[in-house]
Amino acid sequence: MQPRPRTIPEATVARLAVYLRVLATLADGGRSTVSSGELASAAGVNPAGLRKDLSHLGPCGVRGVGYDVDLLRDRLTRVLGVGRSRACVLVGIGNLGSALADYAGFGTRGFEFVGLFDASPARIGQRIGNLQVRGLDELEDVVAATGASIGVITTPAEVAQGICDRLAAAGVGSILNFAPVTLAAPAGVDVRKVDLSVELQVLAFLGQQRVPAEVGESA
């Protein structure tokens, strides 16, 4: 399957989302301008990398002044397509799924859960926030009725591919996968995998690498 062409590299898009989060925090704090150095530091990148990323947006800052927080925030919002609310459905109401469904921060970033689904009779009918957990037999109908464009999968690995297939067939074009398995999706459907165990293993490795230096410093 050939990926769809993108005008901005995927890695850059991920960093643009981080810049948007930082800018939102600055705006909430009453800031009107920010330097490239300050924005880069808050986002965890170097200033040259920041300027290269923002070059995809066209002219943004003013030399010696920096970036207008509100203007850059608005431009990033348009580029990332989060200026309007996007309907999402979530499948798999275990501990992780329940926590994601109940997180209010998604709403402030332009994402709204419109359907929660699980196969367990014990979970069907439960309320999380303003939504009631539904059975999987209602998945396609809810996607069609709400126009949901994003699906979040937090199911066990063995059933995740089947859920991915159903979401794609129902018209969902973007899938965020937390299940510990790589999913295959048809052309035109984007899948991003979030593997928490891999991230923890990376952190464990980095922590292990620091141990000799820390021991040496204390000697």
TrEMBL record:
It comes from the Bacteria. Residues 18-57 bind DNA. NAD(+) binds at G92, I93, G94, N95, L96, G97. Homodimer. The keyword Transmembrane does not apply. One of its GO terms (cellular component) is cytoplasm. It is found in: Cytoplasm. This is Redox-sensing transcriptional repressor Rex. It comes from Blastococcus aurantiacus. SMART domains: CoA_binding. Signal peptide: none annotated.
